[in-house]
């Protein structure tokens, strides 16, 4: 985690460290060993077509089976991992594990064609070894690159445009597709959006949450879907929990939905069941 710059020779002494700081340090200390101790897990949440409710793929979402804390949510440790270099190794492990699992499912269910979507942090995207790591994972697992999607957040697009375009071009040669996650909540310049080779826009769940009850949320969602379609992107609605929300989305011709209504993110065994049931 980042330290404040201090005058050399002086030590800022705080008699009581804020308990949140201590908590963060504890998590960071444990996280260093989590990978080696095989404490991380990948959960899978189905992504479904709105039209006929078919599973087209999964989003890989990491969890941490902590020895004393139990199952820890990524919200509690990903931001900490992102302040250190840990996110780079964790992200690589998630991608490898997910691609390996997808390969296994493709052998088990040869008539199904499913894609995997993996969340990726800015530090990973800017890692000079990213392409080498991706290639190693694809070769090692035998998973097809065109069935791998990377989810980036809107605010990541505010980074150096030329840098990003180079990275995105390298992904494009591998036919790896990009999604923008949590769209509508981050800081992004709409005028930037069209220059990036983005295939999917994921409407943030805060809009979907109120889509049936608040006409503003519905109007904003409609606007996002129209924007995406105008830019030749497809739309995934995140956090769909009710059939009313589904019916609100239908007239917008939103392509995909994802949410608890269909399934929460689940471990391998439960996800296998989902695939076999459809
Ligand atoms: P995200 O990528 O936007 O993932 C969607 C989050 O919404 C997930 O939370 C998912 O469990 C939750 N969700 C899905 N459907 C519903 C619903 O119907 N209702 C509600 N209330 N929630 C729903 P989760 O798994 O706790 O992950 C939180 C965030 O942590 C993710 O947000 C993503 O930003 C980050 N994250 C998770 N795994 C990874 C990873 O492997 N790498 C990186 N860099 N970030 C990750
Ligand atoms: Mg995501
Ligand atoms: Mg999201
Ligand atoms: Mg989110």
TrEMBL record:
It comes from the Bacteria. Residues 24-278 form the EAL domain. This is Diguanylate cyclase. It comes from Merismopedia glauca CCAP 1448/3. The chain holds residues 319 to 596 of 596 of the full protein.
